[in-house]
Design a protein that fits this description.
- The chain is α/β, with parallel strands linked by helices.
- The chain has 2 domains: 96 residues, no CATH class; 213 residues, Alpha-Beta Complex (2-enoyl-CoA Hydratase, Chain A, domain 1).
- It contains 15 helices and 12 strands.
- The strands form 3 sheets. A 6-stranded mixed β-sheet has the order 5-6-7-8-10-12, covered by helices on one side. A 4-stranded parallel β-sheet has the order 1-2-3-4. A two-stranded parallel ribbon has the order 9-11.
- Helix 5 packs across helix 6.
- The longest helix has 16 residues.
C-alpha cells in the first residue's frame, strides 16, 4: 500500500486511517522526506474502523516526524472520540490552521522537534522534561533554521552593562519579592536575569521561614522573552546545555512552586510565560498577553515551557500556541488554566 501525496490539503479521516497504516507513512509525512504537516478532517466519516486499525494509527501518530493536526469543530464526533487525543493539535478555525501550515513549511525541523518533545515530556518528571527540552533546544541552536533566522535578525553590537541588578530581591517578613528589573528592554530574559532569579530562588529554598515568593516585573512588561542580543552567543550548543543543566531558574521555581505567586502584566512572551507557569498561583492584569514565538525562529520554548505550560493547559493547546505564534489574551488564558486570576493593574505604581 503506497501513500498518496496530499500537499496543502486536508485528508478525510477514512483516507488518513488507510495511509497511516502504511509502512511508508513515516517517510510520507516527514519534515525531511515528505509533507511537513499532516492535516486530517475528523468529522469526514462515521464508519468505524477496526480496533486493530485504530491501534496501528494511534501508534503511527505517536511516531510521525511532523506535526499532526486534527480539523474538528465538534469533539463529540466519532472521529474525535477515536483519535482526537493522539493528534498534536486540534483546530476548529481556518486561521489557526493557516498559521500552523505556514510555520510547518517555513521551519519544519523546529515544528517537528516541538511536537516530538511534547509527546515525550508528557510521560516525564519535571527534571527529566527539562533535560529533554535542553537537548532539543541545543540541537536546534546549531540547526539551519535558527542560523537563517539569526542571519536575518541578529545585529552585532556592544551590550551596555545594566546600571541596576537585573533582578531585585526584597524581603518583607516571611515574603520574598523577586522583580525582573530591565524595564528599558521590557525585561528581556538574559544571563544576568537568569542568575539573579536562581540566586533569589535558591535563597528561598534554603530558608524555611520564607513562606511566599512573589515573582513580578518592573515597567510596562513582565518579560518580553529572551534577549535577542544574547541569542547564539555561547561558544557551542553543548556548553549551552551544560549551563542549562547547572543553572536553571525553571528547576528552582518548580522545586518551590507551591510557595510562588507570579504577578504578570503587559508582554509575557517566551520565558515570560514559560517560567511563571511553574508557579503555584499565577495572576495577570487585563493588559497582559501571552505568546510563544520560538518555533518561527527555528527553535522551541527553551526556558522550561515544554514542561510547565502543558502541565497547565495540556499538550495540544501548548502546541497550538507554539505552532501559530498567536497572542493569547487573559480571558482565554484563564479559561484554559494558563493563569489563575485576572487583576486590575495600578499603572501609576508600575
Amino acid at each position: 500500500m503506497t501513500v498518496a501525496r496530499t500537499k496543502g490539503s486536508v485528508i478525510p479521516l477514512d483516507e488518513a486511517i488507510e495511509q497511516l497504516q502504511s509502512p511508508y507513512a513515516l517517510e510520507a509525512f516527514s519534515a525531511l522526506t515528505g509533507e511537513p504537516v499532516l492535516v486530517v478532517d475528523l468529522s469526514s466519516t462515521t464508519v468505524a474502523p477496526s480496533k486493530e486499525a485504530l491501534a496501528r494509527v494511534r501508534e503511527t501518530l505517536a511516531q510521525l516526524p511532523c506535526p499532526s493536526v486534527a480539523l474538528c469543530t465538534d469533539l463529540s464526533t466519532p472521529g474525535a472520540q477515536w483519535l482526537g487525543d493522539r493528534f498534536d493539535v486540534v483546530v476548529g478555525e481556518e486561521e489557526e490552521l493557516a498559521l500552523i501550515l505556514k510555520t510547518s513549511q517555513r521551519t519544519p525541523l523546529a515544528a517537528m522537534s516541538l511536537v516530538q518533545l511534547l509527546r515525550h515530556t508528557e510521560k516525564l518528571s519535571i527534571h527529566e522534561g527539562l533535560i529533554a527540552e535542553s537537548w532539543v533546544y541545543s540541537k536546534l541552536q546549531s540547526g539551519p533554521e535558527f542560523a537563517a533566522w539569526r542571519a536575518r535578525h541578529h545585529k552585532v553590537g556592544e551590550r551596555a552593562a545594566n546600571a541596576e541588578p537585573a533582578v531585585l530581591i526584597q524581603r518583607s517578613g516571611p515574603r520574598v519579592r523577586l522583580t525582573l528589573n530591565r524595564p528599558e528592554k521590557h525585561n528581556a530574559y538574559c544571563a544576568e536575569m537568569r542568575d539573579g532569579l536562581v540566586e533569589g530562588l535558591q535563597l528561598a529554598r534554603s530558608d524555611p521561614s520564607v513562606e511566599a515568593v512573589v515573582l513580578a516585573g518592573a515597567g510596562s512588561s513582565f518579560c518580553a522573552g529572551g534577549d535577542l542580543d544574547e541569542f547564539g552567543t555561547l561558544p557551542d550548543p553543548a556548553t549551552a546545555h551544560a549551563v542549562r543543566s547547572t543553572r536553571n531558574a525553571a528547576r528552582q521555581l518548580a522545586a518551590i512552586a507551591e510557595r510562588v505567586e507570579a504577578e504578570l502584566h503587559g508582554a509575557c512572551i517566551g520565558a515570560g510565560i514559560e517560567l511563571p507557569a511553574f508557579a503555584g498561583h499565577v495572576s495577570a492584569s487585563e493588559d497582559a498577553f501571552f505568546q510563544l514565538p520560538e518555533v518561527q525562529m527555528g527553535l522551541i520554548p527553551g526556558a522550561g515551557g515544554s514542561v510547565s505550560i502543558p502541565r497547565r493547559i495540556g499538550r495540544q493547546r501548548t502546541a497550538l500556541l507554539a505552532l501559530t505564534g498567536l497572542r493569547l489574551r487573559p480571558e482565554q488564558a484563564l479559561r484554559w488554566g494558563l493563569i489563575d486570576r485576572i487583576t486590575r493593574r495600578d499603572h501609576a505604581g508600575a
